[in-house]
Amino acid sequence: MPSETCDVVVLLSGSGSNLQALIDSTRAGDSPVRIRAVISNRADAYGLQRARDAGIDTVVLDHKAFDGREAFDQALIERIDAFSPQLVVLAGFMRILSAGFVRHYEGRLLNIHPSLLPKYKGLHTHQRALEAGDHEHGCSVHFVTEELDGGPLVVQAVIPVAADDTPESLAQRVHAQEHQIYPLAVRWFAEGRLRLEEHGALLDGQTLAASGHLIRP
């Protein structure tokens, strides 16, 4: 094990397949990543079970129990900071975060999105890519800023769109790439290779292109 570990808190609302990919990647003997806790706004999120199976602390914080987004986000900050993480990872966390939350974790908050940003921010990305007749699709890891799905890009995986693709088949192939590039980006951060500066994301001291680091599997 490396002498320095990077403590990570993961936020999720659903099945947690990206969490599982992160857990699996940390089991490599040389991983600097330590997942301290998984927090969900849904008690029935299967990702919580994945965390428990891996011996990771879990927290449920029901957003419906709070009077508004800011109150929920403040409580969420308190739960996260109790674990003193260096990095917070959004893995299918279906909440739009307040500006105050995003500013609190500026430079240490990552998200993954199922499109080649800046295309198709928001939902239904696979359907939208097909309707647009795109020849390529994929997924993006980015630093989170106050602009929804708009922060500096870290890494993108690009896959071809087949003539017979459906939203479901496209989603399946995109998910497979998410499970590759998210652990990669988290490891870069944990190793001190990736950081956010005023002018964008830097990898190994070099400013990343607007599209981030491109991977074509």
From TrEMBL:
<dbReference type="InterPro" id="IPR004607">
    <property type="entry name" value="GART"/>
</dbReference>
<dbReference type="GO" id="GO:0004644">
    <property type="term" value="F:phosphoribosylglycinamide formyltransferase activity"/>
</dbReference>
<comment type="pathway">
    <text>Purine metabolism; IMP biosynthesis via de novo pathway; N(2)-formyl-N(1)-(5-phospho-D-ribosyl)glycinamide from N(1)-(5-phospho-D-ribosyl)glycinamide (10-formyl THF route): step 1/1.</text>
</comment>
<keyword id="KW-0808">Transferase</keyword>
<dbReference type="GO" id="GO:0005829">
    <property type="term" value="C:cytosol"/>
</dbReference>
<comment type="function">
    <text>Catalyzes the transfer of a formyl group from 10-formyltetrahydrofolate to 5-phospho-ribosyl-glycinamide (GAR), producing 5-phospho-ribosyl-N-formylglycinamide (FGAR) and tetrahydrofolate.</text>
</comment>
<dbReference type="InterPro" id="IPR002376">
    <property type="entry name" value="Formyl_transf_N"/>
</dbReference>
<dbReference type="InterPro" id="IPR001555">
    <property type="entry name" value="GART_AS"/>
</dbReference>
<feature type="binding site">
    <location>
        <position position="111"/>
    </location>
    <ligand>
        <name>(6R)-10-formyltetrahydrofolate</name>
    </ligand>
</feature>
<dbReference type="GO" id="GO:0006189">
    <property type="term" value="P:'de novo' IMP biosynthetic process"/>
</dbReference>
<protein>
    <recommendedName>
        <fullName>Phosphoribosylglycinamide formyltransferase</fullName>
        <ecNumber>2.1.2.2</ecNumber>
    </recommendedName>
</protein>
<feature type="binding site">
    <location>
        <begin position="16"/>
        <end position="18"/>
    </location>
    <ligand>
        <name>N(1)-(5-phospho-beta-D-ribosyl)glycinamide</name>
    </ligand>
</feature>
<feature type="active site" description="Proton donor">
    <location>
        <position position="113"/>
    </location>
</feature>
<comment type="similarity">
    <text>Belongs to the GART family.</text>
</comment>
<feature type="binding site">
    <location>
        <begin position="94"/>
        <end position="97"/>
    </location>
    <ligand>
        <name>(6R)-10-formyltetrahydrofolate</name>
    </ligand>
</feature>
<keyword id="KW-0658">Purine biosynthesis</keyword>
<feature type="binding site">
    <location>
        <position position="69"/>
    </location>
    <ligand>
        <name>(6R)-10-formyltetrahydrofolate</name>
    </ligand>
</feature>
<feature type="site" description="Raises pKa of active site His">
    <location>
        <position position="149"/>
    </location>
</feature>
<dbReference type="InterPro" id="IPR036477">
    <property type="entry name" value="Formyl_transf_N_sf"/>
</dbReference>
<feature type="domain" description="Formyl transferase N-terminal">
    <location>
        <begin position="8"/>
        <end position="186"/>
    </location>
</feature>
<dbReference type="Pfam" id="PF00551">
    <property type="entry name" value="Formyl_trans_N"/>
</dbReference>
